[in-house]
Amino acid sequence: MRMRHTVVTAAVGSALVLGGMAAPGSVAASKYPGQVKCPKGDYQLCIDGGPGGFTISGRKFSGHANAIRLKNVSNVTITGNQFTSLSGPTGYGAIHVQNSSSIVIRKNSFSRLSNGANMHGVYLVRTSGSVITGNTFSSISGDPVRIRDGSRNNTVSGNTFTKSGTYAMFSEWGRLEKGETCGRGNVFKSNKYGIGYYGKGISLIKWGGRGGGKTGLRLTWGNCKKASIVNKGGNSRL
Fold it and tell me: pTM for this one?
């Protein structure tokens, strides 16, 4: 009977790991499918490939430049997490997603994220069909949600933005002069918003950004043939 009990416990433990569940408050408490050693950039949790289909929840990420990096994965949900006090010269985003699809980011808290215009709450690169909803963004120095290089059909809705953003609440920027492409079909709707990070009102959306920073080019917007982000309305000022 004792041996049988041991086997059952091990099986349940494996199911918890495969389901992406772990004790709240500990970033390294669980091994997720596709989890790898993080590359340079001061990330705390990195997924590259794997079957997807799991949830990251109940975690607190702080004290580094970045938090989560997802790459080459689909159908991952990130919910109920706290991202706070992230800063540093390599900061790009609390959640940095590349070459992925169907990522759901909902009901998370993002606060005190800083690295000038480079630091975002959510940063999607070549990513499609993802949803960012029900989150709160506060004191984010860069644009709270940023997409890049052909990201398409992503929806930002039902979020609350306060004292966040340099250029817009939801923006697109890329190295278009180096062959990166514009996205399409991205939507911003039904969000609540306040002032930008530097105390002034900013745009809700900006798309087709190029230049600025270390590119040697003047920063300009609207450099795509068609708007890659559309404001579908229902947004209200706080």
Answer: 0.88
Q: How far is 209 from 231, CA to CA, in rounded Å?
A: 16
Model confidence at 4, pLDDT cuts 50, 70, 90, reads very low
| Residue 30 pLDDT | 59
At 167 the pLDDT is: 98
Element (H, E) at 69: strand 68-71
Question: Do residues 59 and 84 lie in contact, with contact meaning Cβ atoms separated by under 8 Å?
Answer: no
d(CA 191, CA 48): 31
The CA distance from 94 to 113, in Å, is 8
Contact 210, 176 (CB under 8 A): yes
CA distances from 219 to 58, 75, 106, 215, 231 (A): 38, 34, 31, 9, 22
Contact 116, 143 (CB under 8 A): no
